[in-house]
Amino acid sequence: MELTTIHDEVREYYGRTLSSNDDLHTDAPHCEAVAPPRYVTEVMPLIADEIIARFYGCGSPIPPALEGCTVLDLGCGSGRDVYVLSKLVGETGHVIGVDMTPEQIGVAEKYQQEQAERFGYAASNVEFRLGYIEDLAAIGIEDESIDLVVSNCVVNLSP
Ligand SMILES: C[S@@+](CC[C@H](N)C(=O)[O-])C[C@H]1O[C@@H](n2cnc3c(N)ncnc32)[C@H](O)[C@@H]1O
């Protein structure tokens, strides 16, 4: 297959070349200098193993005091940070994950119901949208609709 754009190359790498973070061509996710804060690590044991195995970020971009917030994760991948945020915003909050790689969104969506149950929620407070972070309007994300935008190792990949 001929790769024609940065989007194509990045999607190929995260969607097909990698099957877990053991395959990464970097050791950034294992960087202890950027260990996540305790309010994040406390949620990790509640996250499904496959989501954690396909975490390709580094450290944590998640601030404290998020109860009730609407949060957008740009390039959410398999959804580790989305699900950590799901717990931190609580049942009244909302989290949207955007990613252009179907394989990654597929893993994230697979655990939507299970993660809601793990957190003791009546219904999931997260959603995932397949699309480009450069064109959020195309996937229905409106201006002024988000309280907090986070992103973990993605903006550097954007053309
Ligand atoms: C290094 S991984 C990080 C994934 C996730 N944030 C995490 O921490 O596991 C980069 C992710 O960004 C996505 N991505 C890269 N460029 C993108 C773009 N322009 N639009 C949407 N998603 C993008 C890739 O598909 C991949 O899932």
Task: Give the helices and strands as they follow along the chain.
Answer: HHHEHEHHEE
| Computed Rg | 15 Å
How large is the share of residues in beta strands? 5-15%
| Total individual domains | 1
As a percent range, the share of helical residues equals 25-40%
Number of strands: 4
CATH topology: Rossmann fold
Bound molecules: S-adenosylmethionine
In CATH, what is the homologous superfamily? Answer: Vaccinia Virus protein VP39
Helical stretch tally: 6
CATH architecture group name? 3-Layer(aba) Sandwich
Derived from helix and strand composition plus strand pairing, the structural class reads alpha/beta
Outline type: globular
Round the mean pLDDT to the nearest integer and report it: 92
Indicate the CATH class.
Answer: Alpha Beta
Strand order of the largest sheet: 3-2-1-4
Unreliable residue stretches: none
Profile the largest sheet. Answer: 4 strands, parallel
How far apart are the first and last residues' alpha carbons, in Å?
21 Å
